[in-house]
Amino acid sequence: MSLRIYNTMTREKEEFIPLESGKVKMYVCGPTVYDYIHIGNARPVIFFDVVRRYLESTGYQVEYVVNFTDVDDKLIRKAEQLDTTVPEVAERFIQAFNTNIEALGVHKATLNPRVTENIPEIISFIQELVDKDYAYENGGDVFFRTNKFTDYGKLSHQNMDELQLGIRIGVDVRKENGQDFVLWKAAKPGEIFWESPWGAGRPGWHIECSAMARKYLGETLDIHGGGHDLQFPHHECEVAQSESLSGKPLARYWMHNGYIHINNEKMSKSLGNGITVNEMIKRIKPAVIRYFMLSAHYRSPINFSDETIAQAENSIERVMNCLVNLQHRLTVAISEADEETVALRGRVEAIKEQFHAKMDDDFNTPDAITALFDLVSEANQHLQRPVVSAESLHLLINAFESFDQVLGLLPEKQSEGLLDADVDALIAERVEARITKNWARADEIRDQLAEQGIVLEDTPQGMRWRRK
């Protein structure tokens, strides 16, 4: 089965065929860096990381660009509040973003271009639109003529006549049409600015992605992604700007993830129910957050609550316990493969095929996770056997690692706890203390390990340990 992607533009699943064989050019709209990212921002960050991982795991070379909007009204207001500069605000929250996504197991993009580093390209792009009569200047601002781009609305499937009727009476009188949008904003006194053919100012929001996507990936992308809320107006405006100049599709496949609800309510500033990733990772394990995000199909809404997080915690613990058991059994496994190893290989391959079939079906992560738990069940059943081969255990462990190459749910090394020589030494000392009936020392070591989040368990093969 070949990969099929639901294309927002056509509202259909389509076979994925990149422009260049073996290579994928992917652009995903990144954060406006005026604050810590919230849980809603985390969903596309995690999901498109999985898209990138899956494409790479199947042999594609992926150029993955995620931009930083490091100048706009929000940054200007934040700089005023903090009595600092816009660049300083941007740098602070770009560093916070990088720290947060690293905690979430997200691989850094191939490139993170910043608006402020691409002003000449943005001005040039606007000038081209002006030269082709797709844009006009009025009062130091430059606007895009939406009625000149006849396909405006094709991505979001908006009815332009209805949109026009819905525009407020107080629309900017300098616009020729209420739907026209700003490409360049004249600077107000005291604001950060750059010189341009239309005077001192800064870019509008929509133009930055068109200019940077063209600069770093070319006129047509393979995949353009972002949250559902970006379909209109942001991505619609990108389409208009880019295709007006190139006459080519801006992207072959448009992907948009669904909303996040908080306790069954839509997350919004008015409700004050937003949660930053910076806060969240202090009380919820990053693997649990990733699992939660991937437990629903990316196009569906997902509800964040204590209950759904508890379910995710239990699921991650089940996987981790299984892996710890596999690693532990390696210490007493027989070296020779047996008939059960051969039979197991066939069952594991079937599960791996199921995993890839689900990922090939528009990145269906919840069903791919079902395949992961089929592997957990297979492993747990295998571990019930009194004698197992090292080959069979490595077969199962390698399957987990191949799944996690895509999902990114597990620690960098599944056996990280078992590699900690200090913990092993403490456990050995505790065993010796119990043998010599030094109960006080044994209890002291037990409490010390518990404080470090180490759980001790007696098994038929002896004492083992794992991290909570």
UniProtKB/TrEMBL annotation:
Q: Do you know which InterPro entries this protein is assigned to?
A: Cys-tRNA-ligase, Cys-tRNA-synt_Ia_DALR, Cys-tRNA/MSH_ligase, CysS_C, Rossmann-like_a/b/a_fold, tRNA-synt_1_cat_dom, tRNAsynth_Ia_anticodon-bd
Q: Which SUPFAM superfamilies does this one have? A: Anticodon-binding domain of a subclass of class I aminoacyl-tRNA synthetases, Nucleotidylyl transferase
Top-level enzyme category: ligase
What is a single molecular function from GO for this protein? ATP binding
Residues involved in Zn(2+) binding: C29, C209, H234, E238
Q: Which GO terms describe its biological process?
A: cysteinyl-tRNA aminoacylation
Keyword Heme attached: no
Cofactor: binding details: Binds 1 zinc ion per subunit.
Q: What is its EC number?
A: 6.1.1.16
User: Where on this chain is 'KMSKS' region (motif)?
Assistant: 266-270
Residues bound to ATP: K269
Question: Does the record's keyword annotation contain Ribonucleoprotein?
Answer: no
Cofactor(s) this protein requires: Zn(2+)
Kindly state the positions of the motif 'HIGH' region in this protein: 31-41
Pfam families to which the protein is assigned, alphabetical? CysS_C (PF23493), DALR_2 (PF09190), tRNA-synt_1e (PF01406)
Catalytic activity annotation = tRNA(Cys) + L-cysteine + ATP = L-cysteinyl-tRNA(Cys) + AMP + diphosphate
Q: Which GO terms describe its cellular component?
A: cytosol
Instruction: Give the record's keywords alphabetically.
Output: Aminoacyl-tRNA synthetase, ATP-binding, Cytoplasm, Ligase, Metal-binding, Nucleotide-binding, Protein biosynthesis, Zinc
Q: Where is it located?
A: Cytoplasm
The UniProt subunit note reads as follows:
Monomer.
The record's similarity note reads: Belongs to the class-I aminoacyl-tRNA synthetase family.
Q: Which PANTHER family match?
A: CYSTEINE--TRNA LIGASE, CYTOPLASMIC, CYSTEINYL-TRNA SYNTHETASE
Q: What is this protein called?
A: Cysteine--tRNA ligase
Organism of origin is Paenibacillus baekrokdamisoli
